[in-house]
Amino acid sequence: MDVDVSKARSILPEERALEGGTRRQSPFREPNRMKVTIKMIRDACGESRDQGRLVINGSQVFTVELCGMVTRIEQHERWTDYEIYDGTGSIRSRIWPRDEDGYTDMSGSRVGGYYAVNGTCTVIDGDAMINTLIAREVTNYNSVTEHMLSVIHEHLELGHRLSSNRIVDRMGTKAQLDIDKEGVLMLLSSDEEREKEDGLTEDYIRAKMGLDRDNMRKVLDGLINEGLVYNTVDEYHYKMAG
């Protein structure tokens, strides 16, 4: 991405609490960064969070990368607040000075300028804010388009991976169910209690199989639907068909 880095000032690469500028010793690691749009952050605020962090596309978000236009700047004694707009929405952001002179990556910035922003997300009363780690001015507007294309590519990959994991999970669940069915059939055909007139009880089978009640019911219902076992005196007693 073509950006003008001559004005970029690096700050300590660590997360900082949004209120009061208090630092938390949690290192900023580049691989954890996710390229997003502001709308994606807004949408994630309404979803359940993993250990307090936003979850986007099934992935826990540590740091985000945005690219958009600065629409408002407010200088404070201890920090600078600004708002950034990326075409999908606006979000309030905050950055702290990097040194005793009070300079930040937003020092000398202007409303209407475009910036690439890396930061952490903080949600307060359901509203998201960006806690800025690094901000750098974008002078080539193609970079905004490149960012959006990168967002699309990255999240298509995440969606594909999530879908693949779900397919594998479903296959694993079906395989385990088939194994449990075989175990119940063996039990009904060979257990010494099978000769009882009423057959084996669900609790007896469950104790032998080591399954919880819900999974036991799935196995037995499946075998009944397949015509391999049947109920005798009530729905809790079973014998093998044939």
UniProtKB/TrEMBL annotation:
Keywords: DNA damage, DNA recombination, DNA repair, DNA-binding, Nucleus. The keyword Chloroplast does not apply. Its main location: nucleus. GO terms for cellular component: nucleus. The keyword DNA-binding applies. It comes from the Eukaryota. Residues 184-235 form the Replication protein A C-terminal domain. GO terms for molecular function: DNA binding. It is found in: Nucleus. GO terms for biological process: DNA recombination; DNA repair. Signal peptide: none annotated. Belongs to the replication factor A protein 2 family. This is Replication protein A C-terminal domain-containing protein. It comes from Sorghum bicolor (Sorghum).
